[in-house]
Amino acid sequence: MESRPVPFDTFMNGSLSVSIPLTLLVPAGYRFTPADAPETYSFWMTPDSAAAFRKAKDLPVLKGFMYGKVSLDVAYDSRTGVFVGAEDQEAAAAQAGMDVSFQKASSHGHALLFIEGTERKTQRKLYALYVALNVATNTVYIVYMPPKDEPSVAVCYWKAFKAKLLESK
Question: H helices of the chain, where?
Answer without folding.
Answer: 8-11, 47-56, 90-95, 151-167
